[in-house]
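Pair request: fold both.
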Amino acid sequence: MLKTEIGSSDRLLAELRGWVEAETPTTDAAAVNRLLDRCQAELAAVGGAIERLPGRDGFGDTLVCRTPGNGAPVVVAGHLDTVWDHGTLATSMPWRVEGAKAHGPGIYDMKAGSFMAFHSVREILRQKTRTRRPIILLLTPDEEVGSPTSRAPIEQAAKGARAVLIPEPAGANGSAVTARKGVGRFEIRVRGVSAHAGGNWSEGRSAIVALAEVILKIHAMTDLAAGVTTNVAPIGGGTRPNVISPEAWCEVDLRVPTIPLGEKMEAAIRGLAYERDGIAVTITGGMNRPPFAETPEILALYAQAKALAAQHGYELPVQHRGGGSDGNFTAAMGVPTLDGLGCPGAGAHAPHEHILWEQLAPRCATLCALLEEIG
């Protein structure tokens, strides 16, 4: 049973509120770092071994905290950045608690889960709980844009790790995650030839028309039976209705269940680039997150989590999820990775974002017990 005292859901919610009210859009490194400062100070105060990796490319820092112990560590990783701009809290998504739901920007994805990871490690250190393995906690700044600066520290921490725990939000039915699709991201830019749309139509080469043809080909690559989806958004181009468009662009999201399909689809999308008859189509990008495939070792980790959840009074179903997370990186390394260990709720990236706050304590207790007991 759990050796570390976690506290009540009311207490956890009160502290979590401070995290939610500290708005941390990915694009504001200073805002992310202010919340990291708070986390660093509290973890250092209870004896955590702190490493702070400076941010780059306009992103915030990455915080790494280690607990004492020998052997292969258990890694737990969460991100502090959200998709919500400054001012969201004061305008469209104020903090509020309505019955079993607590609302606020980023509370579900994934400040509740990252707070649970932070709180568990802080209390293990503060209460001097002996864990079977050392713990490495990572709090990262850029997951919402593909983890361009935090992927390397996450993979470095996971090398030789016994297991990785990802407290991304639990599913709508409270489920953990044992597999995720891989994610590809591409940018398409088309250069055409401008001309007057009335007097010189034949001299123009429409970048918008060329882009539309490429978009239809990408849309046709979706194969639901094979688990492959594509989506084009956003798109843009053109200047005025009476000008043949000399430029157009779009972005593409790709989801695949396996590494071979990812390689095949990446080649197919990039193969749509061409240059002829005044049109040039340039395609950049590729697979951003490798697929997270379920393995017997991951299922064994899930079985341990399910048993602990039962001890804390709730069922823990399991699901495979289409969205990616930082768990994709570590699972692809062959490290047993269990995801979706955060708080249930709904509305990720949507105005109705919320958690079911009464589940904070039992869910946090399960996460803490996993950190204590994974052998």
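--- second member of the pair ---
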Amino acid sequence: MTASLTVACLWALVATLIAMAPRRWHWPAAYALALVGIPLLGWITYENGPFWGMLALAGGASVLRWPLIFLLRRMRGQGAD
């Protein structure tokens, strides 16, 4: 397993631990996970190819689905309410 996939597994483990944490930690942790996950996604794609990059993108989007939904709503002009 390459270093980028190992770090991606650690990212997923941290995301799982954050999901078990108190709710007040979820949104700040989601921003931190996204901040770390975007460069990680580029590293995975560079090191392992587009198939693994798309697979990591799908996994990250499934973990961070609510921030992604709110971002898409805000981009369409519907607001986050």
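Observation on the second member. The helical segments are 3-19, 26-48, 50-63, 65-76.
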